[in-house]
Specification:
With 57 residues, the protein is of the alpha+beta class. The chain is 37% helix and 18% strand.
Length: 57
């Protein structure tokens, strides 16, 4: 199981997403940041993506 929290990428938010693989984790996390934080697809820049570190659990 992998996890990623909003706090890990700089948001003041307690949300943590968990999934079996990177693809599913990213899809779930992406939906959350679009809906909860108002990010737009074009804001997923290489610099932003560098912050994303998936943790194996």
């Amino acid at each position: 199981m992998k996890s990623l929290s909003c706090r890990d990428i700089g948001f003041d938010c307690n949300y943590t997403v968990r999934a079996e693989n990177d693809c599913e984790l990213f899809a779930k996390g992406e939906r959350h940041v679009f809906n909860a934080h108002g990010l737009r697809e074009e804001e997923f820049t290489p610099k932003f993506n560098e912050k994303i570190k998936f943790e194996d659990q």
